[in-house]
Amino acid sequence: MLTIHLLGHSYLAKDGKPVNASLKAVALLIYLTLQRRPQHREHLAELMWNTPDALRNLRVELHRLRHLDLDLFPSHQPLLEAALPTDLDRWLREADHLPDSRLGEWLSQGSGLPLSGLEDLGSTEFREWVDSQRWVISQEVEAAFSRVYARSVQNGRLAAAGLIRARADQLGMQLHITPAPSRAMGSVKFERTELTRRFRQLLERARETPQLVILSGRSSEGKRELIQGAVAGSDWQALQMQASPHPELQRAAFLHQLLRLLPPERHAEAHALLAQPGHREEDLVRAWTLVAATGHPLVIAIHDIGQATPFLTTSMQFAMNLPSSLMLVLSPSSADGQHALRDALGTVDRSRLHRLEVPALAVHEVMDAVSERQQLLSPDQRRAYATRVVQQSDGLDLHARELIEADLELPGTRLPLPAGVRDALLGELGPLPPAFRGALARLSLMYGPLDMAVAHVLLGSDAPAVLAQGAALGLLTTAAPEETVRMPGLMYQASDLEDGLCFSSELMRVALAGTLSSSERRELRSLLAVHHLTLQPALARYYATRAGLTDVAAQASAQFPTPLAAPISATATAPARRAADPSQHEPEGVVTSRTECRTSNGYRVATERGHLQILRNGLYAQPPLLRLLWPSVPAGSWDMVARLDVQNSAPELESSETAYAFAVRVGSGPQVVYTQHAACEVQAGQQMGAQVPLGCWFALSGTGDGGPLELSVKSLDIALTIATWRWNELTLLPVQRANSAGQIAGRAAVAG
Predict the structure, then answer these.
(1) Calculated CA dihedral for residues 601, 602, 603, 608, nearest 10 degrees
(2) Is the pLDDT assigned to residue 185 strictly greater than 90?
(3) Closest to 173 (Cα-Cα) out of 135, 138, 134, 133
(4) Distance between CA atoms of 139 and 468, rounded to whole angstroms?
(5) How does DSSP assign 648-677, residue by residue?
(6) Rounded-to-integer distance, Cα 165 and Cα 152, Å
(7) Integer Cα distance of 732 and 481 in angstroms
(8) What is the pLDDT of residues 305-317, one digit of tens each?
(9) Taken in order 410, 415, 420, 426, is the CA torsion positive or negative?
(10) Same domain, 295 and 347
(11) Do 320 and 411 belong together in one domain?
């Protein structure tokens, strides 16, 4: 049987053995096979040769094929057609039932450059066709890698998943997980109970007189679900729509949604407004008059507002004076948009203007949402699962839901971004100019702070404008080598002294990187490898290796500096003791509400039900340092109950490993480092503490001289929860309500 080989070098095989056919003949058969329809001889001749004697050359190639006992085409027939089986067809079929024993060979077969050898053949039109088909085949290969990877993860075959991921990384592929069909339990719902209660309180006020809410937050889906959940089971109706910079389109969307609530006798008026718009101010009055005619209390929400247009603000100011039960919700797309919206609504009655924020998902909200699905898990396993969902999704509703409904094992390592999440994130950038989105995609290949020099390498003269616009839109934020949060009040202030920027969302960075082709990623990595050769040799070696530049990688390795004080490999004193679940014996007076601050480097520091949580799904780079500072504590002993559910680092980006899960320092004493590993490299002023387990509660204790107390974290990805922390008789955690003296117990403790 004849087979055309498309993966790697292109050739023709018969019964598994190569056929000695010319490359032009192979190209001809590949073209006919992939086009899947008859082609005229003259077209084929011009495509393959583009010379005056092209038809003669075609006849010669067909004659040679017949001499190889490959009589594929009838003589003197003007149309030629071929549909030969390909190695790609067989390779894709095998992906659906691939045993682990065949995985290595299967990965090797899919790793070659498709249609290799055809680059310089034929006319310009044919070479362009080869490029387009190569892209199509590469997408099919990437999708097959993703399917096999997702199935391996779902079935717990993590070693196989690791092999696939490593090969995909070498090839510059982006693995995408398509969620498996969810079990018949309905869609996962996240209940933001406290926020829903506050929204309903505002609805009661809106019954008497219109109210306006500026609703912020990073989760577009979370905002919509909040509104829908708040009106569920009541007589309120919700109209939710996307913002448009064009007043006519915004008005049309509004009227189309309003039509379903209007009584039949008012439909003609609405249709007239749609079909024959008049003067803008008159139409505005007529449209809002129809709102009063619905007979329903209404929530009208406009999402993803990029700028406060005069039409929008005029509409809101008019609507706030209607004698109707009306709640207006405006959801800006960025922090800058929120400030602009607030300023534009300056004449609105401030007693009726409210600000609410949809926070990132909390661990207890995910635990509640999966309680039915995860009945067979122990409490420790359920908490570990929920924590990893929150950490992996960065608290975004859509991503968390896809992870849960895909029914994946979550071992704590990074998983590919689900296709639906990637599309939703990129959709948020839809209104931006394509050139700007393309520039952001190029910046996404930088694994570290974006300074002007790096931006010039990637963008040329456009760099200053792109960085400025990215920062203004909140897509880029300050990247500092270390950050400080002051406890117990979670007080954080980004530094104004740092020039470097980074993506404010690692998920968005990954989504943007996925829009680049493999060749674009190789080109950018080559540029970055050369740029960082003397500045950051470890990073240069990483880029060079992934770009296939072995010489540059060797030069980078030779550039590694010799440290003045070599790091010392230290061994943990002992494994940490396992501890009982502290939430089963929650003390009285604990603050149950959640408070969170998010640093520019993506550390989420929160107090939830009295516990301290530190979560991060960080920019793929050398991890920055996070320091949590309490005021002075007296000399003495301390004990802690905590858990570590995620700890990942990126050692390939550093010449020596400096990351750790967390560390404790008091005053001028040593920094005691804790990690999931039995040994790690420690720097001057550090010493190794106990080895801590993943996915369960553990207990630690120690002693220290008096002085300021510091808890530090330095990790690419982290999910750390501290339930209790006592210093002598003083309670640092859990955070407690104000006592009779009007002070928080934790604050009283650190005051000494």
Answers:
(1) 150
(2) no
(3) 138
(4) 34
(5) E--GGGSSS---EEEEEEETTS-EEEEESS
(6) 11
(7) 27
(8) 877 777 788 888 8
(9) positive
(10) yes
(11) no
What is the structure's pLDDT at 276?
64
What is the widest separation between alpha-carbon atoms in the chain? 102
**Lowest mean per-residue pLDDT among 197-206, 278-287, 436-445, 483-492:** 278-287
User: Hey, what are 439's tokens?
Assistant: 């520039």
Q: CB within 8 A of 537, min separation 6: which ones?
A: 556, 557, 559, 560, 561, 655
d(CA 175, CA 173): 6
Span 185-199, average pLDDT: 83
Q: What is the predicted pLDDT for the residue at 200?
A: 96
Q: Are both 208 and 303 inside the same structural domain?
A: yes
Is 15 part of any domain? yes
CA distance 548 to 525: 9
- Residue 599: helix, strand or coil by DSSP? coil
Cross-strand bridge partners of residue 637: 703
For 226, the 3-state DSSP assignment is helix
The Cα 620–Cα 617 span in angstroms is: 9
Phi, psi angles (nearest 5°) of residue 95: -60, -25
Q: How many domains does the chain have?
A: 4
What is the pTM (predicted TM-score) of this model? 0.72
Q: Judging by DSSP bridges, how do beta strands 482-486 and 625-633 pair with one another?
A: parallel
Could you give the CA distance from residue 529 to residue 547 in angstroms, rounded to a whole number? 8
Element (H, E) at 63: helix 54-67
Q: Helices then strands (H, E): number in the chain?
A: 26, 29
What gap in Å lies between CA 378 and CA 384, rounded to an integer? 10
**pLDDT in the model for residue 183:** 37
* Alpha carbon distance 370, 383 (integer Å): 10
**Residues 255, 66: Cα–Cα separation, whole Å:** 69
Question: Domain range spanning residue 371?
Answer: 363-415
What 3-state DSSP class applies to 571?
strand
Q: How many residues are recorded in the chain? A: 752
**DSSP code of 738?**
B
Strand order in the sheet with 326-332: 237-242, 298-305, 326-332, 211-217, 353-358
- What is residue 628's predicted lDDT score, i.e. its pLDDT? 97
E runs forming strands in 428-558:
476-478, 482-486, 491-492, 501-503
Q: Taking the CB of residue 314, how many other CB atoms lie within 10 A of it?
A: 15
Q: Mutual orientation of helices 220-231 and 397-405 as an angle, nearest 10°? A: 90
Residues 151 and 263 placed together within one structural domain of the fold:
no
pLDDT of residue 156: 56
What one-character-per-residue DSSP string does 181-219 give?
PPPSS-------HHHHHHHHHHHHHHHHS-EEEEEEES-
